Batch of 4 targets.
Target 1
Amino acid sequence: MQLHRLINSKYPTIAIFDDIADEGDFEAIYAMQAKTNPRLRFLDGLEGSITISEIPASNQQVHSAIAPFIHTPVTPSRFSSGKYGVLYGASTVACGLSEVRHHIQKHLNKVEGIAFDNIQLREYVFVYNAPLEDVRPKEEFHLPDDYTHPQAFGARMWEQVRNMVNEGVTENDKLGVQYNSVRSQGDYCVGLFSPKYIEQMKQKRHYSMMYDPNTQSLSDAIQIKRVA
């Protein structure tokens, strides 16, 4: 399935090794980077970490595929309390923008003294070719802002995925969930607990949204740039 991911584009990407490194080089490369970036977490057994074997080495945008797993989550999400990373994707770019817009607006509404903000988002399109746990029938997983049930489920699934990785992951293993979009009716989202089997992740369009503190709302997204 093809999926869309929107991330904050305030800072440019840095991926000087992605196009030249072989799979066998990754462990040494990331160990080197970790010396100056303590947020990189690749050690097996460390809480919330992934393993080198999960890195999709053939993916040109490998840094984007693994980013949610190697950086400590800033805030909890629908399927994580913040102790581990989850890569989220949406079935359409409109769905992804709706989901991200809700969470950014919720965060900015809590910032005291904010006068104005311009949010720029970078779109990634990627393919995921492995089965997912379908939780769309579970109504308790789709409450607008109560993540109690999906976070508990996500914690259990994270542990299950870690066990699968230790035993040897196959393409038949379910390493993520598929659920209904709460912000875009008729669309769906996925939450991946491992970057394994993420394919063809490419950077596409850029969007901009303006925050108005008077109305405490973000404007609709405007496309500002496209990457071929």
Target 2
Amino acid sequence: MGTNQSTKKQDLIHIAILLSVAVVIGVYLIATTILIAKDGVDYIERAQQFPSDPIGIIKAHPPGYPVLIFLAHKLVALFSNSSSVQTWIYSAQGVSLLCRILSLVPLYFIGKMLVGARNSFRAILILIMLPYPARFGSDVLRDWPHILFLAMGFLLLLWGAKQGKWWIFGIAGLVAGLGCVIRPECAQLVVYGTLWLLIRLLKPKYNMSRPKLLCALFILLIGFTLPVVPYVIETGRIIPPKLGGLIDSSKEHIAGSHSYIYTIVNLLGNVTQAIGRLIEEISDNLMYFFVPALLIGFYCRFCKQSMATDIERFFVPAFIVFNVIMMILLYCNSGYISRRHVLPLVVFTIFYVQVGLLVLGDWLMGRFSKSPSGTNKNPQLWFFVLVIAGLSICAPKLLRPMRIEKQGYLDASRWLKENTKPEDIIAVPDRRLYFYAERKGLIYNKAVPKQAKYVVRIVKDEDKKPKFDRTVKKEYSVCVDKRKKSEKRLVIYKMM
């Protein structure tokens, strides 16, 4: 009993420290944000439209994150009568930050089950300090709300498999179904749970008999369908739009190919490029410094020392393989992979960075320590040197205000808000320009919409006359990046 109380106390201390650090960093990033992400405008606009057209919002896009923004704004409205754009932005950023903070709790316990409490604490602390994951958690993006449900469901699967309690799989299925309303990728939890239970049916362990395994499988699927079926009925589709587009494009590509050899060679080329891009984006998220530690941690945990349990040996590789396949398919279909797309891979493998750093620290200690073998008083000295070096690399980018290189966007939006009428329509290359200006706007590439009263262009030479089909008058100009006086400028024209 004393040991259990000590363990719980240690967990509470660890979680309290992690949450405190995450809150401080998250609030700082929100307070210093210059501009939100492009996708953030879409999410906020859907949240604003949700009360008047809930069915339309549900059918157009997974509504989970916009609904959370809407509810957060309602909560803020109880304490403030303001309904400005900035209020909506802070509400959305607050939702992302809250989900990031909450997700650290299941992530900590996932790491505790896999690599132990102390290693999990250190790993999550490194994750909190990584610049790009931290920024995603303070931006208007749905990545951390998605990871919150993914982490809760993954923890429940690990817990259910370890404890042999069939009813836990039902809760995991329910969490996966709710997560699908934010991002369909949460359905992967059902895949892992189903595969685990089917494998165990062939060779049941002492903690779960075959009847219990069948009950666990049944309740896992039932729990998943409870929130998903109403959503599927409302939207009228079972397959997510992106997956449907991938299937359609693959069929068209195969049908249009004159040679199976050409198709295979082309596919192998795309897969190779996708893997290269995937490695690059993961390395970016880990600031490159922590990549060797990640690889060493995997090798030591799964190959060399064979320390991983059966549960870890199944669920972790299954998660990695499934997500790598999704990234490859995304690249083959859309031609891109971003840091945001690989965030789950970084978050759920961060524990092996910690393992790798310990191994590297021990190696450096043995190589550079002048003390006789076994007499060193601080065997983890080099580990802390490595961690401090890594965090020092992270700090400048972490503390840099988000999108400070686009300060000119805010200045142009401010000019539009102060010098145009509310009914004026603004044609812009980036929707954030009209969004911050609180004006109606239209996106254009080359041809300017006829109903536009003002046009915003991003140019290198503002003296070069634009080729519009109407007479225009230049009203305002500002550098995109005001710190460097970059060549790119935002120029606002009035249509005469």
Target 3
Amino acid sequence: MGRSEGHWGFPPTLPLSSLTLHELDTLRTKRIEEGYAPNTINHELTVLSSAWTMARDARCEVAEGMKFKRMKVVQKTRWFTQEEFSAVLRELDPQTPIAGRSASRFVPRSDSKIFHERAEAHDMFIALCLMGGRWTEVATVTLRMVQETVATLYGWKTGRERAVPLAGLLKEVVDRRSTTAEPGQIYLFPGKLGIETARSGPSRAITRAISNAGCNAPHLVKMHGKATIHSTRHTFASWLLQGDASLADVQQLLGHASITMTMRYSHLDGRKVVDRAASILGGVHL
């Protein structure tokens, strides 16, 4: 039941035949007291459920009548406001002083590793927010997939390509990186096939900048959920819906196979309905 002492809160020698509803309830209560998120607790329960099912199907001795009841999860679609977007970019600016080992602050040298990571993270954050792609989709954009006004993203989950517009800050980033690309460079953001582990530096820089920009203040996390790198994808959809884009437009640009996935943003689309209704009702006179 465990790879090391105390894994999943159980002794590593605990057999599945001794796993009872009481042990599951104890684990669930312990995880809640430790402050774990419902999704994390449900992941543990899913792993335990899979182990129990595999053992049962293999005709091993297991406890009967097990019910791996998952915790209720309230989905919160966290996205960045324009102010938060600007604040994160300021934190990622390579010229912004950072704290050293002492109380002093310093600007990294242009040839240092941290300067390069922040420069990469700065451009990557803009691309993530304005392309609406997942990390791997954006990190694997090649120079050939970028045209004058449009970029092509390959959806690794759907196996389909989709086009997104290049405008404003995104076009500035793409033009600059395309112009300064080295001979033989394939990717817009050079890396080992855009794999997350090969880009852990920029990834860490973005995560750190999000926190330093105040985007994960306790009251914000409680109301809207924790801001992460994936929040950039929600930001893309939210900004579009706050403009004139429809849910169908956002579905196509995000590459969702079903409109059901896009419906999580319907509360933003509903604001436009309220605005239109206010405009109509405001014309009623005595």
Target 4
Amino acid sequence: MIEHIVLFKLKAATTKEQIQTLTQGLLKMADEIAGIEEISAGANTSPEGLNRGYNYGMIVRFVDAEARDAYIPHPFHQGVVKEYIHPNVDEVLVLDYET
């Protein structure tokens, strides 16, 4: 299994409604892209203050590395990036690990 962790720095002008739409778009990928076991996403709620400006996160669990590799160029994923991520996000940080 691959854990795909994505952290976002949302644009300062991003509204609560845009965040809800972003979340819905991200979660839809589980129904559209083969090999995704689970997706969770949401705004940072940590009290530690160690997020370095990253204020939204997503975890995607893939069945294996091949599924993750197929997801990256997948047309549905690329559509989510274009429609929901680019308009609302300044920076992205990605880290994957195998379990």
